[in-house]
Each structure stands twice: as C-alpha cells, then as structure tokens.
Amino acid sequence: MAAAVLRLRRLDGVxxxxxxxxxxxxxxVPIVLLDAGATVDCDPDWLVQWARLGAVxxxxxxxxxxxxxxxxxxxxxxxxGDALRKAVYPRLERIPGFVGNVEGNDLVGDRVDVxxxxxxxxxxxxxxxxxxxxxxxxxxxxxxxxTPESRAAAEVILPAFLETYEExxxxxxxxxxxxxxxxxxxxSHGSSTARAIRQAVGVAERCASAGIVEQLKATLRDAG
Amino acid sequence: MAAAVLRLRRLDGVxxxxxxxxxxxxxxVPIVLLDAGATVDCDPDWLVQWARLGAVxxxxxxxxxxxxxxxxxxxxxxxxGDALRKAVYPRLERIPGFVGNVEGNDLVGDRVDVxxxxxxxxxxxxxxxxxxxxxxxxxxxxxxxxTPESRAAAEVILPAFLETYEExxxxxxxxxxxxxxxxxxxxSHGSSTARAIRQAVGVAERCASAGIVEQLKATLRDAG
Lengths: 224, 224
Fold this sequence. Notes:
homodimer; alpha/beta; 8 helices; 12% strand
C-alpha cells in the first residue's frame, strides 16, 4: 500500500487512502465498505472524503445509479456513536446519498450501498462477517455429511449451495480497491490463486476503461 | 442499564459497566465479548478492568478453567491497533491469561475465551456476526426450498440444522450480563419471548448460586 501511495500519489482532496472492500450481500450487488484497514486513527474529514470516493466506486464498479451511504455506528439513531462518529455525522449530512447511521448487520443488508468507517472498525467488522460466514459454512457441512441419509440429500442440495458460494467467493469478485490514489490499484490476498489474480486484473481493466480515476477527480473537484 | 447502575451500584475497582455478551461459536462454549455496547468512548484502564471481569464470567458462567483473553484489534501482531489498543496492550500483558491481539473471526474461533474491546467496536462486531449468520441462514433456506427435489432432501437435513440452530439461539443461551455492577443483571432483548425471559431468569439464578459477584469482587481485590 505504501508503494501504491508513493508511486501513484494521492488524489487532490484526499489526505489518506482507504481500502474499499466489496462485501457480498445476498440478492444484490456488493456493498462498498471503506476503510477496511488502511488508516486506523482517523480525522473526521477523512471519513467524509472516503464517503465521496465510496459513492463513485459503487456507481462505476457495481453499477448503483444513486448510491446510498451509511456511517457505521452502534445504533441507527443520529445521536449514536463515539466521539469520532459524532464529529463525522453532521459533515456527512451535506453529502448526497447519506442516509444516516447504519449497524454491522447492514453490511449484508439492503439499506445502503456504501458503508464508511475508520480502518480499525472496518477491519474488525469485515473479519467478523468473514468469520461468521465461515463458521456457518462449517455448520452446514457438518449437517450435510453427518449420516448416509444426509449425504444422499446433500448431493441434491450441494449444486445450489456451490453456485451461491461461487457468486460470493472473494476469488470471483476480484478484491478490494485502494481508494484515494491517482490510479487504479486492486488489493489481493497474499494467498491469492492464479484465478483470483486474473479476476483482480479484470477488475483493474474494467475500472480503468470506465474512467474511474477521472470520475473520482471530478467528484472531489465538485466537493471543493 | 442506568437503572441497574443506580440500583446495584458499581463494584469497587470498576469505573464503567460493560455488556458481556456470550457469542455462540461452533463446537465450544460461548466466547465472552465485552463491552458489547455499554460504553463507547473508553479509557484504557476500563478495558483492563473488563478483561478481569470477563475472565471471571468465562470461568463461572461457561465453565472455562483458565480463560484465554484477547484484545480485539485489526491484526494479530502486538504492533497492530489504533491509539486506544496501543495504550491498552501493555497493560493487558500483566493480566493472567492474556494471549495478545485477536481479530473479528476469533469471535467464532477457538483461540480465546474472552474478547475485550470498547463498546463501539464490540457492538459493531456483534451485529456484523449476527448479520452474516442471518444472511447465511437465508441462503441455506433458499437452497433447501428451491425445487421439489431440494425440498425432499431438506426434510432429511433440517432436523440436524434445527438442533444446531437451537443450541446457538440467543433465546436458549439466556442473554448478556451487565458486568461491573454489584449484583447479577441479565440483559434481554426488548423483543424477548416468554421462553427467552425464562432462560434469562435461569442464568441469573445460576450466576447468583455460583457466587459470581463474590468471585468478581475477589478478583478485583487481588488486582489491587
């Protein structure tokens, strides 16, 4: 990430980069979560910048015409949140598409298309989602392979499971974007397979073709 | 919660109460997550106090002989974390059972028995876990009821699913404890059914019979 910031440099109007991770949610395009771990101690202004970037990513990468933006908090009410959230909230109210505070479960729901938070909380939330999903897959597997009867039934059900799994597999979705640098930077896992890297290159190609950097710059320019 | 603090008063050596939520994890007793939302802006000392309380709860409520305690962070390395985590880490190192930083996925794993964090992060993590688990249940249901063949197979598999679900249902586990007050206080959902309330009363009875408050006091006294 340091290399990307040094080589590509930051966009004008962005003080820190953010990792924008697509979170797979059932029955809809992925939700853009940022920051998922680039910057842990945050100035309120940075979250406002990331909200603007996230909306562009939701629009250009995931095809959401008018992205709804939520601030990740410990309750939906405007009064909820710690000191950082209370400082950020009134600034976000000036941003088109801001719908207010959202909660951890909204990262897999249909209330918003972009969830903005500091990199510490974003990382904890993302790994909690991944952990719970993996634990549930384990429970399902145990149930499917428990007895000869369940194994026979599993053969009927597994194709549908695998299709859904494939749709939401990070190897299929192509990974996170580093938002706020002057270029397209896709972040893959250290353990990425050849297939995951091919998907990531595909995402980079599509983002570049769609002129995502120019759209980010235009949005930041309009925000003044 | 305010009523509980006013009526029961705080334990000596505890500056703020914490909500200690049992997080169901596959194949093991629940993990104690605290704080799950009582106190959002935290002094490092409070997290240290909660770590001690959490270890007593894991021992007395969940029967863990020597609870392992983790600090929820954005990576396992000791250098990970925001300013609060960096201030808390060296203080936690003096606590018996502290194993270091843990991540969101460890809330459903087997590395630790107690996870300590501020109430903001704890609340976001808990709701992320719940959201992902609920989304996965939805996906499983859709797969099971997709076709006449899958519905027939589902009849074979559902009993095992439901048994696992029942084990981990918050209505079965009896809810969170308010840690740090001089008494036993079980926190239930506003939407609790009669059955959930009966379980909660059972938890309160067992905690009181086991002398949990005396054990909390002894631990705080030993900590000086």
